[in-house]
Amino acid sequence: MAASALSNALLSPSSPTPLPSPTSHGPKFSVVRFPNPGSHTAVVAAPLRKTTSTSRFAAFCSSDAANRPEEDKPIELRYPAFPTVLDINQIRDILPHRFPFLLVDRVIEYNPGVSAVAIKNVTINDNFFPGHFPERPIMPGVLMVEAMAQVGGIVMLQPEVGGSRENFFFAGIDKVRFRKPVIAGDTLVMRMTLIKLQKRFGIAKMEGKAYVGGEVVCEGEFLMATGGGGD
Which residue stretches does the UniProt record annotate as biased composition, category Low complexity (predicted)? Predict the structure, then answer.
């Protein structure tokens, strides 16, 4: 009975009569017309909700991509590569070290006789990881110190400062601290800066810091013997 009453109400002349759905070429509105010409609400229109992808949506994505925040960029495009000031072949021309003890892969900043910044890519294929340690691959601290000393050698073993690769040794290490472990997959960034040079005695004092991801992992003071003893 309730259903019959509702049906009669919908079919009565006083009820609004819905118009046919608009075609694809018609207006994008849902229109309902009332039969009373004196009514102030003769036509009621409401925008239809789009349910399919449109060119407007595609255009929005395209323009938005050009202005997307830095953190929304693909991670492989977010970080630039380190610059190359001296590549591995140029490093080999300066340092006498060879496998497995050449621990500098690239120089990214260089001021002869003053300072240098270089990187060591730490990989699981490094020869020390099978023994240090098999279950937890950590770069030995003494090898971090050795790598930093080699960067110091790049600073000093140059014609500009009267260096000579035939006479370059450790003379002392002071205030060395290891702040965090360095593991396979890390990039060790090492900065060595000359603090004092005694040319008469061939002694150089340097300050060194090594970083991973911007955090200090090792630091200390290095005393080196350098000069032209082999000339």
Answer: 1-14
* Residue 207 Rama label (left phi>0; alpha psi -120 to 50; beta): beta
Written as six digits, the tokens of 178 are 């290891």
Which of 61, 62, 28 has the alpha carbon at shortest distance from 45?
28
Angle at 127 between CA 124 and CA 132, to 5 degrees: 75
Residue 25 and residue 97: Cα distance in Å, rounded?
78
Is 132 in the active site?
A: yes
- Kindly name the residue from 25, 40, 97, 132 that is annotated as catalytic: 132
Instruction: Report pLDDT for 168.
Output: 75
Peptide linkage before 222 cis (omega within 30 of 0): no
Q: For 168-206, write each residue's pLDDT tens digit.
A: 788 899 999 999 999 999 999 999 999 998 888 888 899
- From the number of C-beta atoms within 10 Å of its C-beta (0-12, 13-18, 19+), residue 196 rates as exposed
